[in-house]
Design goal:
heterodimer; A: mainly alpha; about 0% strand; B: about 350 residues; Rossmann fold; five-stranded antiparallel sheet
Chain lengths: ~260, ~350
């Protein structure tokens, strides 16, 4: 009897917390498909706001993806070799480098953006291009790539694998591509999904770095909240959800698979 | 079978020492010659520098300044491992988990630009040679320890290396499998005729596989010799005790006789020393009737081992002697027995070594 009571109490509490978190999301999404939010769902269901958002902000959505994939390309090209180098060299210097790479997680995005503006703001064409935002996103997402790849290196003895491939005559570049990268795949995938989702949702840095011509999805979202009807902003949120949720699920699947190994 | 017979290169390492970045001296400068086709075993306890020496020969470590590695007289010191044409079997095998068994074995050939048909033929040849037929398309994590060991060996040999380097290749296996694979490995190495350098801490492996054994201790070479030389004529107490069982007897020698508490023992050499150190192997001591024996003692304990029995006999020497007797001899603790040792079996060791 007592166990039952405790169980029921825990269940109610858990459901309450879940509801607290889920209800706002559901309300926000439902607002995006409601004809008039202030009259409630009885006013009817429509996709007109979604289409309106698409008409107004399609370019921000496309730019967001462009930036996310560009940031991914850079973090892959630099992050994976860097993780490998940090892992194989070891020692104190590697620890320091690793900490430095990780710092941007702890530093507020605004501060990073300010530093970028102070340093590179003078290069007008760079500052005005979307590549400037890519640079910010790379700084912000790099630690996630490096860390998740290094986590895999810690479980696979890549150093011996590398020596094995070397003994068979493979050059360093060949070894990296044939042996190191394939065996780091779970970490690379996890890192890649992390980079994409973080870049798509990044606001702080981007808000400081963007120009009217280089607005990303979250910037557009803030813009629509500030200047549009609530339904439009909510429809925007809906689009964001639809794009980001599959990525998050994929990330979880890869993470689980990585652990199951 | 056309595998790689006669491909051996000779190896010379000259004054190769190794000091690691943190200042530890892993290897004192050592010089060593290995003939074409020879199987040389580096034997010693862990931390003796044997793996470091192997890695210097492989090209995975650089010797300290002044050290040189020569293959067939050619200086290879600064040549990286991928250009040395050495086959290597690692203790952990270092098999590629992202490739099948066949792809692992064929990897070195692929790197060398050998076409698919020729590669497949060569892989098939090695699969047959190492008894792993039927496993070609398996993933590495689907193999047992013994199978992995064979794949690692096949992969190392596939590239027809001039020198085959094996770093404790059997250590990760259980005892019964280790014994069986040791025999197989021995036949394979003889058939291949590749110059082989084999690192182990297991003296049975060293004895069976080595043409010569290099016994190492604390980063230095303690002795180099054939298995028989190392076993019967150790040059130091360390080697005597590391290889097989040994009784170390400290006693004065007078005119060719060890003077022991339990009697006098001829050593076959007309010398006198006030404080000699001698080695006597347990199996060279025969049990005889106590009456009239030159040396006698009392049996402390008898342990039946199966193929023989090991007795501990006290009173004969200053320290109890281990004596091996055939398993049929009737002995029991507390008995007084005579010990008969042929003079040649007593080996005087240099004073503290």
């Amino acid at each position: 009897m007592r166990d039952r009571l405790i169980f029921s109490g825990q269940l109610v509490f858990t459901l309450g917390v879940a509801a607290f978190l889920v209800v706002p999301a559901v309300l926000s999404i439902s607002a995006g498909v409601t004809v008039n939010y202030f009259r409630g769902i009885s006013s009817g269901v429509t996709l007109q706001w979604v289409f309106q958002v698409w008409d107004l902000y399609a370019d921000t959505i496309l730019l967001s993806f462009l930036i996310a994939f560009a940031a991914l390309a850079v973090t892959l090209l630099i992050g994976v070799p860097a993780a490998y180098a940090l892992h194989t060299h070891g020692g104190r210097l590697s620890r320091i480098v690793e900490e430095v790479i990780t710092l941007p997680i702890a530093i507020p995005g605004l501060a990073i953006a300010l530093a970028l503006l102070l340093t590179y703001g003078g290069f007008r064409s760079f500052r005005g291009s979307w590549l400037f935002i890519v640079a910010g996103h790379v700084i912000f997402t790099m630690p996630f790539m490096v860390r998740s790849v290094m986590a895999v290196f810690a479980t696979v003895d890549v150093r011996t694998l590398d020596e094995g491939a070397a003994s068979l005559g493979a050059s360093p570049a060949r070894r990296f591509l044939d042996v190191i990268v394939p065996n780091a795949t779970p970490g690379i995938l996890a890192g890649a999904l992390m980079v994409i989702t973080l870049s798509l949702g990044e606001f702080n840095l981007t808000w400081m770095l963007h120009t009217p011509l280089t607005k990303t999805l979250p910037i557009g979202l803030a813009d629509s909240y500030a200047s549009m009807r609530l339904e439009v902003a909510s429809a925007y949120t809906l689009i964001f959800f639809i794009m980001i949720i599959p990525l998050l699920i994929a990330m979880q699947i890869f993470a689980d698979r990585g652990q199951g190994r | 079978m056309n595998v790689a017979a006669g491909h051996g290169a000779s190896v010379r390492i000259e004054a190769c020492g190794k000091t690691f970045a943190d200042g530890t001296r892993a290897l004192e400068p050592a010089t060593l010659d290995i003939a074409c086709g020879e199987t040389l075993v580096l034997l010693g306890p862990s931390g003796c520098g044997k793996t470091t020496m192997l890695r210097i020969i492989a090209g995975l470590e650089l010797p300290d300044a002044g050290g040189r590695v020569l293959f067939d007289g050619k200086d290879m010191t600064s040549v990286p491992i991928e250009k040395r044409n050495v086959g290597m079997v690692f203790q952990s095998y270092a098999l590629f988990p992202n490739m099948s068994v066949a792809d692992n074995i064929g990897y070195g050939l692929k790197i060398r630009g050998i076409g698919r048909p020729e590669r497949a033929a060569r892989v098939a040849e090695l699969v047959a040679l190492t008894n792993i037929a039927g496993l070609e398309s398996r993933r590495i994590d689907q193999l047992s320890g013994g199978q992995r060991q064979r794949v690692a060996l096949a992969r190392a040999v596939a590239i027809r290396p001039g020198i085959l380097l094996l770093d404790e290749p059997l250590t990760a296996l259980d005892a019964a499998l280790r014994d069986r694979l040791r025999g197989e490995l021995n036949r394979l190495l003889r058939a291949l005729g590749i110059t082989t350098i084999y690192v182990t801490h297991d003296q049975a492996e060293a004895m069976e596989l080595g043409d010569r054994i290099v016994v190492m201790r604390k980063g230095s070479i303690a002795q180099i010799g054939t298995p028989r030389e190392i076993y019967f004529a150790p040059e130091s107490r360390f080697v005597a005790e590391f290889i097989g069982a040994a009784n170390i007897v400290e006693a004065p020698v007078e005119n060719g006789y060890l003077v022991l508490p339990g009697g006098r023992q001829a050593i076959g050499l007309e010398v006198s020393q006030s404080a000699a150190v001698a080695m006597i192997r347990p199996e060279t001591i025969a049990i005889v009737d106590a009456a009239g024996a030159p040396l006698s003692g009392i049996i402390d304990s008898v342990s039946f081992i199966g193929d023989r029995q090991r007795m501990i006999v006290s009173g004969a020497s200053s320290r109890p002697l281990a004596v091996d007797a055939p398993n049929t001899v009737k002995v029991k603790a507390g008995e007084r027995v005579g010990l008969l040792i042929v003079p040649d079996a007593v080996r005087l060791l240099p004073p503290e070594s």
